[in-house]
Amino acid sequence: MAKKDSPDSEVTEWLNTISAYERTFKKWEGRVEKILKRYRDDSRGYNDTTAKFNVLWSNVQTISPAVFSRLPKPEVTRRYRDNDPVGRVASIILQRALEFEVEHYPDYKAAMKNCVQDRFLGGRGIAWVRYEPHFGVPDDGFQITEDADEAQDESEIPDDTEKEVIEYECAPVDYVHWREFGHKVARTWEEVTAVWRKVYLSRSACVERFGEELGNKIPLDASPKDDKKISKSDDMENQALIYEIWDKETDSAIWLSKSMNRILDKRDDPLELENFFPCPRPLYATLTSDSLEPVPDFSLYQDQAKELDSLADKIDGLIKALRVRGVYDASVPELMRLFSEGEDNALLPVKNWSAFSEKQGLRGAIDLVDLAPIASALVEAYKAMDQVKQQIYDITGISDIIRGQTNANETATAQQIKGQYASLRLKSMQNEVSEFAQELIQIKAQIMCKHFSPETLTKLAAVQQMSFEDQSLIPQAIQMLTQDPLMSFRIEVAADSMVQADEDQEKKDRMEFLTAAGTFIEKAGQAAAAEPMIVPLVMDMLKFGVTAFKVGRTMEGEFDKVADEMKAKAAQPQPPKPDPAMAKVQQDGQLAQGEMQLRQAELQQTAQASQMRLQMEQQRDEHAMQLKAQTDQLKMQQELQISQQQQAHEQFMEQSRQQFEQWKIEFETAAKVTIAQISAKTQMDAALMAAESAASNEVTEDLGGEAETAEPDHLGKLADMLGQTLQAIQGMAEALTKPKTIIRGPDGRVSGVQ
């Protein structure tokens, strides 16, 4: 009996198969390594001054975004477009879940980008899809998983046992390096029966994947960088190299360690995929029908690329040779300073100018190398480079339109035709990339439908945002998805969905859809109104036209609902068509009855008009009488008001006249009093002046004209006289200014003043 770690026949068979692949593709791998060095320009050394033209980098950077620049949009539709509401809801759930997986996790985009780059460099891009459940212990106690023994009695399960439940699930897409992928040697991909990839695991990953006992035995002696045995002293992290092999002939997946020469694990059809392989057909460059060894694109124009490098180096040399070189007369040292110190509008002094001029000046003292042949050679080198680049563009199919270069002399039609022909090969590349992306999404969809729980699918699809009618069909739709998704549904990826979207084209498509649908509905509505029996046919034709448009697929459910309602309405029993003869008799009777009803209506209208006319005349007379009575009453009221106003005016005038008379008497009396006061004041002033004059004379006489030398007794006498005079004057003033009393008679009139 062989030892446990010794290789058995199955291990030996797989090791031989792997070795056969490595021998067959060794030459291709060496070519790819050279191409990668050329792409990264690793061949240039620090002391290498050779000029190069990296056309490989330019072409890859031009074509890659033309075939893949954004995430694809998966489209899930029913395969046969039947009127199946459950299938429609199932396709919506699967499409939403796929969109979430593609957009939410960055692995898909990274894998697609790396695969596209590998396709245009080495000629082969590979991606791998896997199922990744994440487990956790529930907080609410023990829960039996699906793979538990059904016959086991729950009472036999210990209380402290912890069972894991799924927290969340995903189907990641792994990029597989071109050196880490292999398959059984075959002529075409359809003949391949086994594929594998190299997986590098750390110690903890080995223990987690294969258990503690076996995981600790796997040697960590490989490196992802060069895939060679490394020593423990190497600075690079040591990892275990595991071969993950999928054999279609036995429908089994095998995990093999080359270092241990043993199979670590083996499982029967783990993913239950339709084509078994967890990877799609690789994204190949040029292939022939006798080998799966791809021919890199660069190999087809590497001679022209070398010629470009040679021309680039020659052009660099010619440019360096475009320098002013020559000889000059050593007897005139100033000429050396001419090119080193001479600036714009600067002159250099020359000693012994007469001797210098006799030697024809600069013409006789300096001689320069002719640069015209060098410049001409440089122009020809540039022309040759353009021709070589055009040859490369013809080989690769990169035209001037794709590179954004146009000729201003060409018409728009000519440029459009050139662009259509130039895009033929580009369109083929885009289709290949879209098919690769589509197969990846199909594998992801199968994993999701077969291994994801219904809760995960409904959560990813956000079914709570769907309509109420669709939510009622979710359980049946989930059941349909778990059976065979690729048989019931189409999962497609359009090539134009992975390049930059053309908003104008999308608007044009929407308007085209609305125009076509509107025109058809208008014409079909007229036909259906004339003949209700053709409504089902009309609705089927409308749905057939709508589903042909991408923008119409989102409204497919509404069309189904309307179609069902219209068909149900058309299926209701219709009244029988009448006999033409009976219809004519009925029509004549209806016409006669209509004429009779019309005459009766005319007579009735005439009688109603006469009655209305009499009522209007009567109402008019009554209104005229009422208006006359109101007018007379208003006239009497106005006359009475005028009479009262006249009486009031006369009374007012009499009162005004009496008041005026009284005011006149009072004014005259006041005038008399005022005149008397003025007269009295005048008399008083005169008396005062006379008294002052008399006193002055008397004093003068007494003093004898010597008032200045008068004695005091004379002054006292004079003061007494002046005081008496002032008292008399004051008394007269009081009598004059004393208020007067107006005396009125019994009738109120003024009779005098006191």
Can you walk through the features of this model?
- With 754 residues, the protein is an alpha+beta fold.
- The chain has helices spanning 9-24, 26-40, 55-67, 85-104, 107-121, 203-210, 212-215, 297-300, 302-321, 353-358, 361-365, 372-396, 412-451, 454-461, 468-471, 474-481, 485-488, 503-530, 535-546, 556-571, 580-703, 712-737; strands at 74-78, 124-129, 132-136, 165-170, 173-176, 181-183, 194-201, 240-247, 252-257, 262-268, 283-284, 286-288, 291-295, 326-328, 366-368, 489-493, 742-744, 750-753.
- Helix 4 (85-104) packs across helix 16, helix 19 runs antiparallel to helix 20 and helix 21 (580-703) runs antiparallel to helix 22.
- It is extended, with a radius of gyration of 61 Å.
- The model is unreliable at 1-5, 141-161, 228-233 and 706-710 (pLDDT under 50).
